[in-house]
Amino acid sequence: MDKIESTKKIYYDVLPAYNIDTALTYSSNQIFKLGSLVKISIRKKIFTGCILNIYQYKPKTNFKVKDIEESHNYFYLDKKKIDFLKWVSEYNFISFGLALKLMISNVKFLEPNVVYKYIVRRNLDINLTNKQKIFIKEIKGASFEEQKNILSDYSKSFINNIIDKNIIEKKVYKEKKNIRLDLQKVKLKKLSLQQDAVYNKILEKINKKKYKPIFLDGVTGSGKTEVYFKLIKHFLVNKKQVLVLIPEIALSKQWISRFYNAFKFYPLVWNSKVTQSKKKKIWQDIIEGKINVVVGARSAIFLPFSKLGIIIIDEENDISYKQEENPIYNARDMAVVKSKINLSDIVLVSATPSLETYNNSKNKKYDYCKLTNRFGSAKNPKVFLIDMKLDKKRLISKQTIAIIKEKINKGKQILILINKRGYAPITICSNCGHRETCKKCDINLVYHKKNNKLICHHCGYLVEPKSLCINCGESDKKIRLGYGIEKVTEEIKKAFNNINIISLSSDSIDYSTFQNVLEDIENANTKIIIGTQIISKGFNFLNLSSIFILDFDLWSYNTDIRTNEKIFQLIHQVSGRTSRKSETGEVFIQTYDTNNSLLKYIVSGNRDKFYESELFLRKKTLLPPYCKLIAIILIGKNKNYLKTVSFTLKDRLSNFNDFTLLGPIPAPIEYIKNEYRYRMLIKTNHAFRVQKIFKIINLSKILKNKAKIKIDIDPLSFF
């Protein structure tokens, strides 16, 4: 946009993308409109700011009003985007400026995204090395894309040296950014009768333009992705942008491959692995409406789409949509709000919905569509229990080993699920009982045999294991209790030493080579896959025959109110990795408690009956989705002060009604990253009322900068 000057100074309220709740006053001779994004200076540092108000005359201030930094090419946020950020701020109890920073995470996003094409000015051999002559010959007449490949083989200093000799020059190159949809190239799979009926039902609801959330329910392997691919095509034909949220970065490569096979172009990817320079280009193209499809992790929900037509949330129940560190938010819930404010459609997709989504569908708050049949001739897997009481003290029962051998001999592919990272979760001295714990946190260090380190899975502290016990002084008395994925992998390799085995966890996945790993699994070159729960999410392994779950009994030792829900979802999801062909898959669960009530639901496969039983218990105990929970976590170095201020805060909150306050108590893990933690929990049906109370009592004034506070609205973890 061209720069427009005024003959006099204009004054602006500018909200910085910074942890601040109020706008600051700046001036400029340049005329900006509401929502314009500009650069501003705060304490000699440059920040992005958004203009919220405009004044023709100088407001009364007791300070010198700074000028907005020079800005020629600027972007702006429309009212819908600002309203969304305001809602995010107020609901999650984070500052308005911090919400803005979620949308504009880097000030460089506002800078022109300039790329260059190199033009050969003259072809002189004077004072040129052979390498320089070869470079000039390669670059001359090459297209922009060809030049990009050529330049990658040369250093910046080498190229700049030739520019200095006035032999080549850089010219700004305007890339064609729009991805043109060629309908002739789109090759979507033919939908089954049921898939087609569900697609038409969703489209009918979308065409009513009520913008009501739609839950696409479907058993694993029913082809939910193919249904929403057809929805994506519908919105692309209508020149609308599409956002697809997926829960894991690891999933994106396989998803993108499926997308490309269908649409013959690649979507833009947005997650923590994408470089800032790429993010800048994507961000600018999105706000200018030049990008059609984005697939991303939770942070993608804050991208400033200008023509957003639909948001699709795959595996909507996945807890990785929740950001646990400040600023705390749930991307799934924010997406529902964004669609409402933006007048965009939203489809939540899952075979194992969150209890909240299930209940919202049941109560008609969400529209509901269901796929009941697995695609093609695929059948639902059968679930069997392996009684560990018959084979005590073994990590992997003899029965499990025998079944795996039988399957391998028949050429089948096996998945073993173990939900713990590392080798062993506890290292203890057998002489005095001293445990190896983290110096910064009140938890055990996990032994990782692969790199011979004791590691804290909360703060990342690591140390090399010592043979000498620091408590009793005895040497070589350390023993390792429990087991993680590394120990399971070691045991399986002993039993099947000639079999191609791979181990996958968040510690071991190398994203640069992960596509090759997936291809080996998909082509059945890998016979045994050993994985943590990361492998349960959305992968499509057509040759997988049987799944073995080794540590079921340990999963239920948790104070989380959603423990049963999470376990059911995990097993249901991982079970869905089998039976992708006509053969019936099998799931084997090792357990000492064969009469466990949760296992009865899992074996029967009656998902809705389990959900109804959980809803009954939640209603009886007044827990979500029948109330709102708000966690208050106080964090500080001084344990006694933290305890005192916790009860001061409780006293202040006790002056208000409309909620029940539980606590304060020390957190289950009281000491993390060299700081103590106290927790309180609020139960209410008036979430925004509680946020207003927090402002009234002025939390920061109570804490006096001697403690930090985390407010977690709708918490998913309680450690």
What is the gyration radius calculated from CA atoms?
Answer: 29 Å
Structural class label = alpha/beta
Label the CATH architecture of the largest domain. Answer: 3-Layer(aba) Sandwich
- Widest sheet: strand ordering: 10-11-9-12-15-8-16
Low-confidence stretches: none
CATH superfamily heading of the largest domain: P-loop containing nucleotide triphosphate hydrolases
Q: Do you know the CATH topology of the largest domain?
A: Rossmann fold
Silhouette: globular
| N→C terminal distance | 50 Å
User: What is the strand tally?
Assistant: 31
* Beta-strand content estimate: 15-25%
Helix percent reads: 25-40%
For this structure, what is the CATH class of the largest domain? Alpha Beta
Please give the count of helices: 21
Largest sheet: 7 strands, parallel
User: What does the average pLDDT come to?
Assistant: 90
Number of domains: 5
